[in-house]
Structure to design on (424 residues):
């Protein structure tokens, strides 16, 4: 029998329970909302794979939607549609997440569905053969997207043969070689209690929800081979590549080494990204698009992991504009290093960040994910008000130190995918 105990209480009145099979359950209750989201996080992703099985975590994500021992894939879809539930999943470099957003009155059904998917997947060999085709189509889809492709190839080269550089979807050769027995073997190792967090946020009753989770996930065994604490911090490599493709625009992605999402500099990094290129008031957007009209799409964005990170700059343009666009971006980076940010930029970025953080509090899906992340990594037990204070405490000096530490042109990586016969 699986029992449960309240073994921790995070700030913001967030409860963390442990089941006897070592699944951690995190609750954030808000009775004023009209929805509730339940998510199941498994601490395994593409960076936990090797060259021969790269893509297995993503394939498992797909296969868990192909039915269980008690219901077909269509029955699963119908059950979820009837409750109005947004049942979905995704695989990342470090985790796999399954989640359902629904009404409080339908929460038990959502938990039961997720529990059945995790504990009793059908994993039929014929279904697997069909789904291999779907995943291979997905791989081709991303290859056909230069915006996605330039990002993925650049990361792969930056991390070289290190697992963090593996594609989440994997290689076709690997995908086509997966068997139902191997998938089951992989799940037996990593879909275990010590590697799972069930997170619920929104309008729900704690006592009955705990009992529903206990019942739905009691078959999960407690221990296995979890990688989350055995990952090796990857080495950043400065790289550059150009790839020609039969497309109209040139797609450029630049990358700098950056802090992890657990680093003390993470709040200053958020401010820096806002100032550099996260929105229409940023230096990149105003300089490259508004003032010079050289691109439609230009932005910066973080790619943060538990032990490292990257700060990307992306722009798409006609190849004849490449030199002008690159020169302007280069000038923005040099000026940030020489003069730093302004007081006005700092204040605006703080306000923008606080607004975004506050609005995310209204989303049960966002709260569910944030809480699961805090528990699965055992980090960042800060209340919402404390996180707001951390943003407000960021100084010009903090951001400027970060710029000088990371935004070094000599250590910048660059990837380009552009039209055939590029002349750049």
């Amino acid at each position: 029998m699986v029992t449960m105990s309240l073994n921790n209480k995070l700030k913001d009145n967030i409860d963390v329970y442990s089941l006897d099979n070592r699944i951690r359950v995190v609750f954030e209750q808000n009775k004023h909302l009209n929805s509730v989201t339940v998510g199941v996080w498994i601490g395994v992703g593409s960076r936990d794979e090797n060259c021969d099985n790269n893509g297995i975590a993503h394939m498992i994500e797909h296969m868990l939607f192909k039915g269980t021992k008690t219901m077909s894939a269509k029955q699963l879809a119908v059950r979820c549609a009837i409750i109005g539930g947004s049942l979905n999943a995704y695989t990342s470099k470090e985790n796999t997440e399954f989640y359902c957003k629904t009404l409080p009155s339908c929460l038990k059904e959502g938990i039961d569905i997720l529990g059945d998917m995790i504990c009793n997947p059908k994993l039929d060999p014929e279904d697997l053969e069909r789904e291999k085709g779907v995943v291979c189509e997905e791989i081709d889809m991303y290859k056909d997207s230069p915006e996605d492709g330039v990002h993925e190839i650049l990361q792969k080269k930056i991390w070289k043969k290190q697992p963090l550089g593996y594609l989440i979807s994997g290689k076709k050769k690997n995908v086509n070689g997966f068997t139902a027995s191997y998938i089951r073997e992989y799940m037996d190792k990593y879909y275990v209690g010590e590697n799972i967090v069930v997170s619920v946020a929104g309008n729900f009753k704690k006592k009955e929800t705990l009992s529903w989770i206990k019942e739905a996930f009691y078959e999960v065994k407690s221990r296995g081979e979890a990688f989350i604490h055995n990952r090796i911090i990857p080495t950043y490599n400065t790289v550059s590549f150009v790839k020609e493709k039969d497309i109209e625009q040139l797609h450029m992605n630049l990358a700098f080494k950056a802090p992890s999402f657990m680093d003390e500099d993470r709040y200053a990094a958020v401010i820096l990204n806002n100032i550099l290129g996260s929105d229409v008031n940023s230096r990149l957007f105003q300089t490259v698009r508004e003032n010079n009209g050289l691109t439609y799409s230009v932005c910066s964005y973080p790619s943060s992991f538990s032990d490292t990170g990257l700060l990307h700059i992306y722009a798409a343009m006609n190849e004849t504009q490449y030199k002008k666009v690159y020169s302007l971006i280069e000038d923005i980076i040099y000026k940030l290093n020489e003069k730093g940010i302004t007081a006005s930029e700092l204040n605006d970025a703080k306000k923008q960040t606080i607004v975004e953080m506050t609005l995310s509090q209204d989303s049960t899906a966002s709260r569910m994910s944030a809480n699961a992340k805090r528990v699965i990594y055992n980090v960042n037990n800060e209340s919402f008000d404390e996180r707001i204070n951390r943003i407000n405490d960021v100084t010009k000096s903090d951001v400027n130190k970060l710029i000088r530490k990371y935004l070094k042109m000599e250590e910048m990586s660059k990837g380009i995918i552009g039209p055939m016969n590029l002349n750049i």
About this structure: The first strand starts at residue 4 and ends at 10. The mean pLDDT is 94. Residues 263 and 307 are 8 Å apart (CA to CA). The two ends are 67 Å apart (CA to CA).
